[in-house]
UniProtKB/TrEMBL annotation:
The name this protein goes by in its record: Lipocalin-like domain-containing protein
Species name: Spongiivirga citrea
Biological classification of the source: Bacteria, Pseudomonadati, Bacteroidota, Flavobacteriia, Flavobacteriales
The organism's place on the tree of life at top rank: Bacteria
Length: 142
């Protein structure tokens, strides 16, 4: 099953290699909302209020971001800087957090989180599912 997920993740990266590096060079600020979570178990997709938490990422004009998560009635926020990444890498944006936190959805041991985008630029997706985290998909709401 893990091999299948790694293959699927690789295909997603290949499909996302395009000119979306300008996605976050458009008008800012932009707010992206978590709209779908998937797990490694078949039929484990959740959306809307059925998700384990609600989350937004706000990309600001000064290359800063704020990620906010609401879980079980508690709101947690984390912030840092973002860098549009080389689309050849399959990542559209790299978030670098100011400090270690529970909101960083990443396989790496550092303070970064990598996001990709669908070819049409309407969905950002996390890469945490490559190491058994949930698949996270975000849609722009402004």
């Amino acid at each position: 099953m893990k091999n299948y997920l790694v293959l699927l993740f690789g295909l997603l990266i290949l499909c996302s290699c395009n000119d979306n590096d300008t996605l976050l060079n458009e008008e800012l600020p932009q707010t992206w909302q978590l709209v779908r979570m998937t797990g490694s178990i078949a039929n484990s997709e959740t959306t809307g209020s059925d998700m384990a938490w609600q989350e937004t990422i706000v990309f600001k004009i000064n290359r800063k971001f704020v990620k906010t998560r609401v879980r079980d009635g508690a709101t947690t926020s984390a912030s840092g800087t973002f860098t549009p990444a080389d689309p050849e890498s399959g990542n559209i944006v790299v978030l670098t957090y100011n400090e270690s936190n529970t909101l960083r959805a990443s396989c790496s041991g550092d303070l970064t989180e990598h996001l990709g985008a669908t070819e049409d630029g309407t969905t950002l997706y996390g890469t945490w599912n490559a190491c058994d985290g949930p698949g996270l998909e975000y849609k722009r709401i402004n």
